[in-house]
Amino acid sequence: MRNTIATALLLILGLTSCKDDRNTIAENKAKIFSELYNQENIKSEYFNIDTRADTTLITKSGSKYRIYANSFELEQNDSTQIIQIEIKEAINPIDFIIGNLTTISNDKILSSDGMLFIGASINDSSINLKNDKEIGIMFPTSKLDEEMLIFEGIKDSTSINWINQKDILNLVLKELEQSY
After folding, report:
1. Do 57 and 47 contact (CB within 8 A), yes or no?
2. Where are the domains of the chain?
3. Exposure check for the chain: N or C terminus, fewer CB within 10 A?
4. How much is the pLDDT for 100?
């Protein structure tokens, strides 16, 4: 009887520790995955610009960003007009993988030719683009896909949902690029 109880206790203890080991292994795998594949792997480029002047920024990938004068919401009493622009670009599938970036729109898979993030700040405080202003963006590409759309990414704790699609207007952009 004692041997049976002792054997049962050892079996329960062994099963419990196996379960804990499986949980620990799963937690370790999740930790390694989140360290290897996260958005911090996509490096930022920083630019300081004067908000009073039209500005064209060119990133290392060759993308062009056109920011027009007086496009940002600044405090009335803010005497400095120099702001910092942060740009992150994920232009190829490798970037999507190492950045753990998803291409999902309301549970439907999207095809993507690139993703970008643009942030603006002054004295380490985020500032917004004025509602009636836009930033012109041109990605270098060897082909134009007339069916591509632009989406706005809404980030949650686990992924990005791409919504509010708009036409790219590739032909208009091509003409603008040639005239610019």
Report:
1. yes
2. 1-36, 39-179
3. N
4. 73
Which DSSP letter does residue 75 get? -
Q: Are 119 and 46 in contact (CB under 8 A)?
A: no
In the numeric block, the tokens 């370790």 are attached to 28
Residues of the chain with pLDDT below 70 are 1-23, 25-39, 76-79, 157-158, 168-174, 176-180
pLDDT at position 141 is 76
- Cβ atoms of 36 and 111 within 8 Å: the answer is no
pTM exceeds cut of 0.90: no
- The pLDDT value recorded for residue 138 is 84
- What's the one-letter identity of residue 9? L
With H, G, I as helix, E, B as strand and everything else as coil, classify residue 12.
helix
101 neighbors 110 (Cβ within 8 angstroms): no
Q: What's the length of the chain? A: 180
Q: Are 65 and 59 in contact (CB under 8 A)?
A: yes
38 half-sphere exposure, CB direction, 13 A CA radius: 10
**Contacts for 51 with CB less than 8 Å, ≥ 6 apart:** 69, 70, 71, 72, 74, 81, 82, 83
